[in-house]
Amino acid sequence: MHVEAALDPPRVYAGPLARVSVRTEPEDFQVEECLGFAPAGSGSHVLLQVRKRDANTVWVARELARRAGCRPADVGYAGLKDRRALAVQWFSVPRGAQALEGWPGFSGEGFEVLGAHPHTRKLPRGALEGNRFRIRARGAGVDPLALEQRVQQIGAAGVPNYFGPQRFGRGGANLERLPADPRALRPPERGFVLSALRSLVFNAVLAERVALGSWAQLQAGDRAMLDGRGSHFAVEANDATLEARLARLEIHPSGPLWGRGAPLSQGSVRALEEQVAAGFREPCALLEAAGLEQERRSLRLAVRELAVEREGDSVLLQFRLARGAFATAVLRELFTLADYQESST
């Protein structure tokens, strides 16, 4: 199994413009979750908007559970966020003894509740429209014209939708914990390992499509995925209508999130996916044994609202990504990152 396929897949643009750091201070990496829906205004749960700084998502959830008088498992959150960051994210807790007005201002080490809103149900994983990022890249001694051109390219054509290094743990640690039977792992660890294995196979397929120059092109047999959504449809043959939608970043080619059965693609696309997966027999077998089904993920990532500002030797980047996407997929097409080898927590 080649860990480098996950941690350092090929880029599509001319190469990094500079070597930078984005972790000098937590405030250098800011992310805000966009729910995409409004709180219901009534119900048996409470949606909490929480700001956390250099804090672990799971630990914050436990602190909220203690305050709410519920089990940690009863606390919902849409996804994990990087620890060394300033993140504004949403949690849910059952509406219990804690009065609604008692939540705003509640704080602990590294976090504070900004707002509380009645809601009808627990916040499930993935219940986001996307994330907004504001990132300071320090040490970015880069030619302004080259930077402007690269930003225009990324805004127009997107970037490969790789899973970021945080999915694999520090130095690929999540890929090293492969038991003979994934059921032998504790539930949280099992989830991290299975997600890392799925991400590894996906990144390897995407890397092959990048090498072939087809990562942003639809082919007969592809499954075209709607931008920012989980819906996809079969491509029997490319045509002018699909090409126009592809150019507008409305749809994208997709790749496999591995599981039981054959990939959902057809023809030469499926053949390529199966050929790449054959190089990862053990990970694929574990994913199938765990009962996961074949799913799809977009090969291309649209980078919305992309803006860049120079400030001394730093570059300030702002952009919005769909849910499930990694900011590192954008950053690595601009820079070499000197300090981004940690897990999301």
What are the SSEs and their pairings?
Layout: H1 4-7, E1 19-20, E2 29-34, E3 45-53, H2 57-68, E4 76-77, E5 86-94, E6 107-108, E7 111-119, E8 130-138, H3 144-157, E9 159-160, H4 173-176, H5 187-212, E10 223-226, E11 232-234, H6 240-247, E12 251-252, E13 254-257, H7 267-277, H8 281-289, E14 295-298, E15 300-301, E16 304-311, E17 314-322, H9 327-331, E18 336-337
Parallel strand pairs: 1-18, 2-5
Antiparallel strand pairs: 2-8, 3-5, 3-7, 4-5, 6-7, 8-17, 9-15, 10-11, 10-12, 13-14, 16-17
Q: Poorly predicted ranges (pLDDT <50, ≥5 residues)? A: none
Residues in helix, %? 25-40%
Assess the beta-strand content as a share of residues.
25-35%
Overall average residue pLDDT = 90
CATH superfamily name of the domain at 4-16 and 161-301?
A: TruD, insertion domain
Q: Can you count the helices?
A: 9
CATH class of the domain at 4-16 and 161-301: Alpha Beta
Q: Can you summarize the main beta sheet?
A: 9 strands, mixed
Helical/strand content category: alpha+beta
User: What is the β-strand count?
Assistant: 18
Under the CATH scheme, the architecture of the domain at 4-16 and 161-301 is 2-Layer Sandwich
H-E order: HEEEHEEEEEHEHHEEHEEHHEEEEHE
Q: Give the termini separation.
A: 25 Å
Radius of gyration: 21 Å
The backbone outline, from C-alpha atoms, is globular
The CATH topology label of the domain at 4-16 and 161-301 is Pseudouridine synthase
- What assembly state would you assign to the polypeptide chains in this entry? single chain
